Structure prediction request, 677 residues.
Amino acid sequence: MSVKIYIPRDAAALALGADRVAKAIEDAIAAHGLDVTIVRNGSRGLHWLEPLVEVETPEGRVAYGPVKARDVASLIDAGLVEGRGHALCLGKTEDIPFLKQQTRLTFARCGVIDPVSLDDYRAHGGLRGLENAIALEPTAIVAQVTESGLRGRGGAGFPTGIKWKTVLEATGGRKYIVCNADEGDSGTFADRMIMEGDPFVLIEGMAIAGLATGATKGFIYTRSEYPHAIATMAQAIEIARRAGVLGPSVLGSGRAFDMEVRTGAGAYVCGEETALLNSLEGKRGIVRAKPPLPAHKGLFDCPTVINNVISLASVPVIMDKGADFYRDFGMGRSRGTIPIQIAGNVKHSGLFETAFGLALGEIIDHIAGGTASGRPVKAVQVGGPLGAYFPRKLFDTPFDYEAFAARDGLIGHAGIVVFDDTADMLKQARFAMEFCAIESCGKCTPCRIGSTRGVEVADKIAAGIEPEKNRELLADLCNTMKFGSLCALGGFTPYPVVSAMTHFPDDFQPAPIAEAAE
Amino acid sequence: MNIHQPRGDVSGRTLAIVEDLKGLEGPLLPILHEIQQEFGYVPQDCLPVIARELNLSRAEVYGVFSFYHDFREHPAGRHVLKLCRAEACQSMGGDQLAERAKRLLGIDFHETTPDGAVTLEPVYCLGLCSCAPSAMFDGEVHARVDADDLDALVAEARR
Prediction:
């Protein structure tokens, strides 16, 4: 029987040479006349080990990494095809501690299966949630999602079931499901990994959302910076359509649902849901004032469910295993699991799916193993460019929506960026303002003008010009932006700025004026 | 700088793209993407054609075109090097890498080398934050980019 060797096709693996490794392995197989099938899987999320090559053995999958093309000859000689030892051998994949400590619900198949094989997807429990949903009334589907406690994984944390209920009850002939896959936050890549590693789970989740609310059309709005995700999603949608998972009669239910992928054009603000809707309609990505809510008047003024990729991709497991199963994970009002994305200056980087409630310090020091540079951790930014910088003294904060909010932070899309002690927090605060100025849609004044003034004030502090007065001014400006902006871009930019000032005041002291020599 | 393109058929090629895509719901972004794919940039002569076919004003079409960072008004260099400027890449020396790229190429961000070889652009996150710093060179992604990798990319672009 042919041996299966898995080489990821995830963008992170490709960026580290996975295609060159695949080519080298193909050549070696041909040269040695070996009976091997190469599967291009998604990523397991152990990104410091990418490209991670796996071999299927009778005892389970054995991992090797990080593999470079030049390692292939020695790997083959050492007995890669039989899963034998080598300096790069990591043992059985599922025994690698980083993976073993996780609770993989949403990412259960990511990195395990061939992402564009519907048979593989079914063989690993796929489509069971959709089949269950077809047997239920829309109200019962909505009730199950509500009872699971699932909240929006894009960052706002709004209960998904409530959103769906509003759309179900909204009148109107046409309704839409929009998937927000505009994952622009630095430090986040969970959406990309799902789209590249298990696209059918997103399709299934959107189809369930369609059945639950009476919507028959879905859009995935993703970023032009994600060409691999776009290609994989488009391919998977086509396969799902041919197999009758999508189309006029979803799995023979007689109920229609179809979808397409749309590509953004490099505007960060389009990750904001109303700007995204405008962009989908072919307009400038300008934020809309709420109300009306998208659930009432969304895409083309029709009732619209707009959910993040991970929210939608978590629905199939809820419909498969039940609301109780999902709700039993987590803490407080944060139920289920959260795919934490560990990035930046960190030793063990990647995706770690776990129940809510893990302490931040546990993630940074133990799971991630501290910094890649080996220097002390100075700050971690949680929740993307609009998230607060936390110092070590807040490392006891549990990963939970409310616990982070109580400490003037946010978990956002659950990305963590680690900085070592060489980071200059005034510079990071300035960058937050600069980024806001570049990406502001321009509709509201606090965001459009406040961000530019913020950069100028930060520069004055750095130059030692009236530092005390300017620190006060910066804090005041942040207050105006926080309470006066129309959306989270202007409203949350103060989080990194204020947290940097609060927790790292030394970095906001005037630069020592260089003494003249002698 | 439009010497690469015969100007005469811009309108005809635009019309063909618009005809092909105008049945989509919200067709303007897909059309602009396709035009950029076809010409390498969005020639301004396309805009009135799109406006007419979609029954929009020229101002509306120009407004959309100019809102998005992706759409170019002028052709890029033969190669495009995008460096990620966001936080995760900053934490792994992205700023120093950007300075090196600027120095090697003798240009700033959003500029093209005088020989037309390379355009240098910032990008805010390629989703490769776990293997920072990252770059995209002619659509191909690169991660854990160090000074040597950057030098090799620049050398390839210059060849």
Q: What stands out?
A: Chain B has seven helices and five strands.
